[in-house]
Every structure is written in structure tokens, then in C-alpha cells.
Amino acid sequence: MITDRIHNSIGGNFAVMTAQGIVRCRARGLFRKQGIIPLTGDHVVIEHLGNHEGYILEILPRKNELRRPPVANLDQLFLLCSMQKPRPNLPLLDTLIATAELAGITPVIIFTKCDLACGQALADIYRSIGYASFAISPSCDINEIASLFQDKVSALCGNTGVGKSTLLNRIAPDLTLPTGEISKKLGRGRHTTRHVELFPAAGGWVADTPGFAFFDALELTKETVADGFLEFANYAQHCKFHDCAHVKDSGCAVIAAVEAGNIAKSRHASYVELYDNLKNKNEWEK
Ligand code: ZN
């Protein structure tokens, strides 16, 4: 079923894509009373007022949502990690993968600037877990990556310098996106930093915002974070202790799998770092 969807929202004005084109909408006052904020990506029911104007009457249930940047119903997140300048930050990448997993968004992992340092070995680690994962350089073929955009709502996430706009320009050459530079010139604290828009790209849609370096969904906790590392699951059920945190050796089947070479050391190291951070944070909060 094709539903109407919010493609842009600025200051209480929503651009809703419908079968008849874009309809400019405001939200029903009821949403504000209920503390519901319509998000870019929301599937909605609208009342047409004519002249391409309308009202949002209802927001359909979301399959996921991010808090920062505010966007709903993403199908996939392309996580970009450069091999040089800056060098890969695997704990950060693995944290983003876990966050996406627990939020119910499919991560796609892309190592960029592989002309400067080969990223194939890293890409293979993530392929072996079951992720779509690529090692790319400016000269390599990206048709397979572009094909993943078809009929999906995607977002690209990566810090300055990882080649996010370079990749997006290759996938959707006609696209002119607001860049971080422009948003800086427009001034900090303005709605532009919270502004997410859906743009057409390679047969699908890409959600973009000047601030899409990182994203934040639900709060990770030390209790749930292992679920964000998919390759742990098959082993974790064989740990000696039911509540094993997979950080110390005592009968831990996950650590045994790392030692046997069945789980990448870097993935487990990322997990331990993340787990310790979350544990310290929880204790600090108490
Ligand atoms: Zn364990």
C-alpha cells in the first residue's frame, strides 16, 4: 500500500508526499496536546483542503524512529568509515551498528578511501557476520551499493571527511544537498540542524540533514548491548552463566569463539569498551 509520507518538516510545516504530489500541511492541534511531534518519514493520513494544502489527521505506527536527527521509518543506515584521514574508528562504527540493530534499522557498512589503505579485510569481517559491507575508492564501481537504495528510505551516516557527500553525489548526481558548511553559515541553533528532508536517490529516498554525522535512537544499556552484536548470539547461549556479560573468561563461549577465530577480535574489543562505558555510566547515575 502506498501511503502519504512526510518528506520535510520545518517549524510546524510539513511537506507530505501524496499520489497527487506535495501537499503543504500543518498538524492537528491534538498532536501538540498529546506531545506527539510528526517526523520526517512518518506515514500519515491527511485531510485535503485544496490548493495543495491540508491537515495531518493521523500518524500511522512507526517501525522505528531516531531521536537525533529526528526521522522515522528508516529502512537502512549506510555507515561510512574511512580507511585514512580520518583513520577507522571501529569502536564507534560498532556502536552505531549496535544502535541501528536495536532500533530495528538495517545497517550497511562502507569503508571509504580504500585507494589510501585497503579496507577489504575489514569489509570481510562484516560480510561474514551477514551485513552488506563494501570497501570502496573513488574509482571503483558502486552499482551494487546504488542498487540497495531502490524502493527504500535510507540515510548515510559518517563524520566529516569520510566521503559521505562524495558517495551520495556518485549515487545521485542530480541531488544538491545542503552541506554542513552551509548550515554553519546559516547559524547555529537554528532549525536547520534539526531539519531532515527526504530526497529522491537511485530509485529510493535518502534522508539527509546537515547534521547527520551521528545518530541517536534508544538508550543503549549494558543489559541489551550484546544483542546489537549479532554474531555473539549463537555462542552466547552456551556461556556457563546465564547472565554472562562476555567480558571475562569464566566459561564464556563468546570469548572462546573470539580465541578460536570465529568472532573478530576487533568486534569483541568494541563490545567490551562499549559495555564498560555503559556500566560506568549506569553506576555513575546511581
Ligand atoms: Zn559469555
Determine the mean pLDDT: 88
Helix content: 25-40%
Q: Using only CA atoms, what is the Rg?
A: 21 Å
Which sequence of SSEs, written as H and E, runs from N to C? Answer: EEEHEEEEEHEHEHEHHEEHHH
What does it look like?
This protein is of the alpha/beta class. The protein folds into 3 domains: 2-61, Nucleic acid-binding proteins (OB fold (Dihydrolipoamide Acetyltransferase, E2P)), CATH 2.40.50; 66-208, Rossmann fold, CATH 3.40.50.300; 225-279, Probable gtpase engc, domain 3 (Ribonucleotide Reductase Protein R1, domain 1), CATH 1.10.40. The protein has 9 helices and 13 strands. The protein has helices spanning 29-34, 90-103, 120-129, 143-147, 164-171, 180-186, 233-236, 253-259, 265-285, and strands at 4-10, 13-18, 21-27, 43-50, 53-59, 65-66, 71-72, 76-82, 106-112, 133-135, 153-157, 197-201, 204-208. It is globular. The model is unreliable at 180-192 (pLDDT under 50). Zinc ion is lined by residues 236, 239, 244, 246, 252-254. Zinc ion (ZN) binds next to helix 8.
Key attributes of the depicted protein:
binds zinc ion, alpha/beta, 3 domains, Rossmann fold, 9 helices, single chain, OB fold (Dihydrolipoamide Acetyltransferase, E2P), six-stranded mixed β-sheet, 286 residues, Ribonucleotide Reductase Protein R1, domain 1, five-stranded mixed barrel, globular
